[in-house]
Design brief:
The chain has helices at 24-56, 60-86, 97-114, 123-155, 159-188, 196-220, 232-235, 238-248, 250-280, 285-312, 314-334, 340-376, 381-399, 402-409, 421-448, 454-471; strands at residues 189-190, 193-194. By secondary structure, the chain is mostly helical. It has 2 domains: 20-226, MFS general substrate transporter like domains (Growth Hormone, Chain: A, Up-down Bundle); 238-472, Growth Hormone, Chain: A. Strands 1-2 form a two-stranded antiparallel ribbon. Strand 1 (189-190) and strand 2 form a beta hairpin. The radius of gyration is 23 Å and the shape is globular. The relative contact order is 0.15.
């Protein structure tokens, strides 16, 4: 694949000329997909542990084991479902949209069941109920999230417009986060205590909103890229060809590593920040401000992403953003003794930097799906996306214990009202130097290892269009 100049990319390679052109309707439809996903995902991420410990009365250690097992199982479920979808024939409504329609209802029902509390049962019953319903919800989440994530690559094959889909996906996630962060605590807590009826009411309300969003995604989005079914003679050895192609897919392997590092770092910082503001700054109220700022920085970055990507490219914009984030966090490390407000101000600049990577990462995935087709002549959107999701789930599983281990390693003692200076310094290092180094490493990975520059991506799009035309 040689390097080429900018090219005009067609909206569709399907022979159906009546397909509506890509536009705002698709962007809004794709935004609603993650809006629906995150109504439950964020509710679970933010409040399920306190529901299990305070309503069911199970131990935090049990919840930790449950979350670890579930993440590893989810990783397997993702790949299994991705392969299953790639073996299905497309319908008149597309290859991926029908699964969002079919599976969103059982997904939401399972989500509501997680928050059902039957009073007076034994501890063993609550543990078993939590295990079964949480694993069921995670499995069904894969059946919706995998087709949803894979769908971006067949809505449009324009590299820049795929970036807008990634941007709108992030907008959907952030809007859900704002609604749950603002409204969730008002529903689920009464007199500063977890309320079982409040949790169930929140699950029902967010479940209804989730279904509405999934239906909007189904109605507004259009799958345009339809690959002709391969002859049975070509389907033999398909799994072998797929695995060889995945291993040769350098863009995929690179973005897997970068995303894995980013996710583990994000989870570490999230866990450590609680101790940073509680013990180092003695200001837990600032945690809410940090959460709001992170959301605001994403919305500030969003209108800048498309013009910057159009001019410079996804790789280039994401790399510069990670460099800015890395520099700011390292600067925080070498400037100890900052006031809380000044610290938050510098963190905001770092968050603005990594918002670019966090927003366009889904567009990277659609590009590596194209690259897989270029290498193998196999269009396996579900499989490639599920491999990416698999890596993220494994990262979540691994990262789940990193925060606790790291805090323990710096000598944190919950029985002490005031932590030692060594512990406070260690917490500050974990919150600043560690993410700074990780972000710089991701910057170097993008610059030196990720091969799909703007020019090479445009050439890839041209080469794929030619190969598909020759096959038709």
């Amino acid at each position: 694949m040689g390097q080429g100049a900018n090219v005009k990319v067609t909206d569709s390679i399907t022979p159906n000329t009546q397909v509506r052109k890509f536009g705002m309707r698709d962007k809004l439809g794709y935004m609603f997909g993650d809006f629906g996903n995150d109504f439950f995902f964020i509710l679970v991420a933010n409040f399920l542990m306190v529901y299990y410990t305070d309503i069911y009365g199970v131990s935090a250690a049990f919840v930790g084991v449950l979350f670890l097992v579930a993440r590893l199982w989810d990783a397997v479920a993702d790949v299994t479902w991705g392969r299953f979808i790639d073996t299905r024939k497309p319908t008149k409504n597309g290859k991926f949209k029908p699964w969002i329609f079919r599976m969103s209802f059982p997904l939401v029902i399972s989500g509501v069941l997680m928050f059902v509390h039957i009073p007076g049962m034994s501890n063993g019953f609550y543990e078993a109920y939590a295990f079964v319903t949480y694993i069921l919800w995670g499995t069904l989440y894969s059946t919706v999230n995998i087709p949803y994530g894979s769908m971006a690559s067949v809505i449009t094959n324009d590299p820049v417009e795929r970036t807008t889909l990634s941007t709108f996906r992030t907008m959907g996630a952030m809007l859900a986060s704002l609604i749950i962060s603002a409204g969730g605590p008002l529903i689920i807590f009464k007199d500063n205590k977890a309320d079982a009826d409040g949790f169930l009411m929140a699950a029902i309300i967010f479940g209804i909103l989730s279904i509405a969003c999934y239906m909007a995604c189904y109605k507004l989005s259009t799958e345009r890229i339809v690959m002709p079914e391969r002859p049975k003679t070509e389907q033999k050895g398909g799994t072998s060809r797929t695995m060889k192609g995945l291993l040769k897919n350098r863009p995929l392997m690179t973005i897997l590593i970068a995303s894995l590092l980013f996710m583990m770092c994000t989870m570490l910082v999230g866990a450590v920040n609680v101790y940073l503001f509680k013990d180092y700054f003695s200001n837990t109220a600032a945690l809410s401000i940090v959460g709001i700022i992170q959301t605001v920085t994403v919305f500030i970055a969003i209108p800048l992403i498309k013009p910057l990507v159009t001019k410079f490219g996804k790789k280039e914009v994401a790399a510069v953003g990670m460099l800015l984030a890395g520099i700011m966090y390292i600067l925080l490390f070498i400037l100890p003794g900052l006031s809380t407000n000044l610290f938050i101000g510098l963190v905001a600049v770092g968050m603005f930097g990594f918002a670019f990577f966090n927003t366009v990462v889904w567009a990277f995935v659609t590009d590596v799906i194209d690259y897989h087709e270029y290498l193998t002549d196999l269009r396996e959107d579900g499989t490639v996306y599920s491999i990416y999701s698999f890596a993220r789930k494994v990262g979540q599983a691994i990262a789940g214990g990193i925060g606790g281990f790291a805090i323990a390693a710096v000598g944190y003692d919950a029985t002490q009202e005031v932590q030692s200076q060594r512990t406070l310094d260690g917490i500050y290092t974990l919150a600043t130097l560690v993410p700074g180094i990780v972000y710089i490493v991701i910057f170097l990975i993008l610059v030196f290892l990720y091969p799909l520059t703007k020019q090479r991506l445009n050439q890839l799009t041209t080469d794929l269009a030619e190969k598909r035309q020759n096959k038709n």
